[in-house]
Predict the 3D structure of the following.
Amino acid sequence: MACERCAEAHEIASAQFVERTKQVMLVGQPSLVLRDDGGAIVFCARQKTVEEVAGFLKEAGLDCGFFHGGMPSQDKRAVQESFIRGDVRVIAATNAFGMGVDKADVRLVIHLDTPGSLENYLQEAGRAGRDQQPARCILLYDEADLDVQFRLLRNSRLTQHDIHSILKALRSIERKDRSEGAVVVTSGEILLEIPDQHRIDPDAADADTKVRIAVAWLEEARLLERQENHTRVFPGSLLVASLDDARALLEKKLGPDTKIEPYLQILSILMQAADDEGVSTDELMLATGQDSRVVQAMLRDLDRLKLLSNDLEIGVTLYREPDTANRIEELRNLESALVVSLREAAPDADQGNWQILNIRRLCDTLRREAQVEFDPEKLTRLLKSFAEPFGEGPGQRGLFALRPAGQDNRYIKLLRSWQDIEVIRERRMRLAQALVSYFIGHRQGNNLLVTCKQGDLEIALQADTTIQDLDVKDWSVALAASLMYLDTNEVLHLARGKAVFRAAMNIQLNAEARRRQFKKSDYAELELHYKDKTIQIHVMAEYARLALGKIQAAMSFIVNYFSLDRADFIRKYFAGRKDVLEMATTEAAHRRILTELQNPEQQAIVATSLDGSHLVLAGPGSGKTRVVVHRVAWLLRESMVLPEQIMVLAYNRSAAIEIHRRLWALVGADAAGVSVQTLHGLAMRLTGTSYAVAIERGENINFNAVIKTATEQLRKAEQGDDVGPSVHRDRILAGLRYLLVDEYQDINADHYDLISALAGRTLISEEDKISLMVVGDDDQNIYAFGGANVRFIQQFETDYQARRYHLVENYRSTQNIIDCSNRVIARAHNRMKVDQEIRINHARRELPSGGDFSKLDAVAQGRVHVLEVPQQYFGEVESALSELRRLNNLQGDSGQKYWGRFAVIARRWEHLEPMAAACRIKGIPVRLMRDDHVPDLHTTREGHIFLTLLKGKYRHVGRSRVILRSTTLSRWFRRRFGHSIDDLIEHPQRAMLAQFIRECESAAPGSERVVFDLIEQVYEFGGGGKSVSGDMANGPMLLLTAHRAKGLEFDHVLILDGGGWSEGIDEERRLFYVAMTRARKTLTLCKRGQHAFIPDFVDLCLTTSTTVSPLDPRLSHRTWVADPEQIVLSWPGYFAPNAPIHKAISKLDFGDEMTLRPRSDGKPGWEIADENGVAVTRMSQKFKPPAGEILGVRVAAVLVRYAKEGEQVRCPEWELVLPEVKYLPCAL
């Protein structure tokens, strides 16, 4: 081999030189080496890289071809031959190129990516210098390449669950066929039964191979047995007396250039067979040397030439509830609606370009248009039936091609024009309806199985007057397309004769093993094989590291690898770090994911068993989000779990965004495939319900109903047989195997039922259950008013036979804050962590109890500070604000920049209004998080502008109609509004839009965004909810209730009294505990009179009394903001588009002054006018002016409304003004 002949010819480039080498080596080296005769090969790990490298080298002036396994066979052969002849001197290729290529004068081999094994590397490097002339082998080593290899291994391997799913699919098909264990099935039919997200890509070239490998392992486990194909041709169908007669007729009809021997072989075999025996198509394939498709074509030729009658049996099983007749009608309506929707959603798909299709939006649209029960799984089957190739010969193709494009999307490319699709689908549907009518008409009594001969069926259809005008040229092809279409869409089931139309396997399921699953013991040998692949990657990495130091050491490594016993080799080269060989990731990634946690409890949770259920009780500030993120990273990188098999359920959208952002930072682009969403979002996805479709039609979404529908759907799918749940459940779950739930203590009964159904809590078979890990803290259960019940987390261990873990080290707060909050929660009843007190994390144990402020603050010295404030509420506000300003000044001269690290928390938001007024008087930036109505982003003018931009993007231009680059939105926002998305923005609706864009871009930095997803997310975003951050130092101080503060943290927290903390019940105790534990550095508590919780820990605090300066009358001002129910939403729409009211509204913006006055038409009621006296808002009958003196009216927001169907208005859409009123109450 080249490495043994000439060690110095091997060169290893380390990671820091890789990018430079890719440009210098790839261009300079090939052109230098190839001045004389010979060739060069650049080996790459991935097909995409191969094509990119070939393009790069061509641009550099080198004649370079490419080769990989995804190319058509004829193209691969042409490339190989060109390279061997020397017509193409440089090839970029995957390792598939090494097979069968024997070229002696290869002068250079470059490995752009580190190979997956030493064997592969030596085999590929051995292509160089076979003519014994000098040659060079260059390996560009980058440790990151190892993760590429691990990812390739992860994506290619078959898991135990993959094989188990194929077994379930076979059992499901057997039940449909009613075949007593015998199943005739194609690989495609099996793949249709299992989720797309399994490792077997139905469109991949190796899909059939993977299915057959899985079937082989099932046979090894004695769960089934492969038999010969049972599609049989019977001698009774012969229409010719002898082979001589047949030869004469064939020569006459087919011409002298046609090889007639295979036809004669078929006829000869049939003549020799017994009358009732028949001959399988497998036997005919073996005798003729042709594949199934060619044999079937030959049989059709013999039928056409009247040498053989077509008596192949076809059997279909009809459905009931709904019956087949109703199903074909539903399919017809759905198909028509689908084509209309596709033409609107992907108008340019027939121009040869891939377009992105949003499955959830399409599903919801079709359900409404066709008025049928429809879900994403049925839509997937319908789309696949359109993509199914039909016709004859190499030109076989479907109506369009499909590719996965993320969780909710598919790529689609038309393979025929829209006009041809309309014609073909209309013809196919008419034939399908005729087929259904034929089978229903030939049904015997209540028997659902209908059988017939293919020839008889063709004759009956040819005589059917309803389809006479179709002018079918090849009935066999037409029947194949129509029957498979009906079978795929579950209108009827093709129980017999499938092998007439497809290359099928004949499988006999083992009746004695009917209740047995494909278990770990069955998978053990295959698991060892994949573990060995992992070791090979690490061995290759070790070789590269040695070669970077000294090439001779690397040569010795190779010799020892092939000569030493495996155990001796590992002891020699991996002494003290054998555990590395079991990691399916690099050592650097392992350190980031596990070692650097530096907390044994966190590490134990992250690396715990993949099986079973796990309960993590995590106190405040204990790093629970970090543990969730690292657990997902562990599954991805160290356990080789596919991203699509993992789901994280977060309590709200902001928590989901934060988890996704952290995961992306830890594992990069792998995070894109992991589903991180809310329970509402999960239910929407399962049911195929779209925010956009509902809202654009003027409808409200009943989330409780959607969650219940999703739960019912899952429960119905559990109803399989005595072996286990139906494969329908697997398809709904879309490959999901690992579920993590955050804030489990806050779920309600509906959430509990959905999670139970998703996890398969009541299922018997462990193989069908999902591995479930929930994280929560019963001490922080504060949403009982919304139906949340702490008993669900308390009974989790019993429900799921779960293992319990505790996280009690606090990484957030100082020791003083932790001690006080522990005192508060200790008195709550029925706690789960009663013996697990929260403590400061290990690394900070020796630090001062008050943290940095032990020295910075000479007054409180880092202690929790209790302010005894006056009974008058305005006095409390003045005292609180004075203390906050004092703390801010301790951090430096330019104190204002730190206000974003401060938060004021109250029991009720009404207590925060005077504080907001006081902040504005003092010039302190502040944001009041109101608990009353906040307009949803999509209803505002700014949201409307943004949605118009997005929708315009995909309707009027090229590729950008569906894909946006990573920072496109933030750049647009700066140009449109003159602000960065990170600026302190006073305008609330623009701040909301900036927040939305910031969250989208931070969740997956540098990645492209799908416009359809963004539109859906805008509608989901609502009014921003809890999507706020306490980490923007230059932001405003936040004023929010304790309920809104959940999940957030701030350097400095002040909790107002306001008389809101007088009840000492457990629910209020937990709420106060949550408020306290938001603080990182300082915690200030206001106390005016009796307080239910401060006495529990007051001995640990600094207590001071405050005096009040004269009251500023402006603190008495209140602000009332209208909600949409208090204005007449349709009123501006009654005016023509060019009416003055629309022009006046278009000039108004947030903060503009207006006037409240009685209606100008003299009728009872109120209206709002602008400064020019133009009425811009009509108040509804529900509106009553606030009691007190009106001090001013201004614009709170400008909304946009669309005309509803049947509404008698003069504009299709219009703007309307939402006012806010500042007033002085009559009495305080």
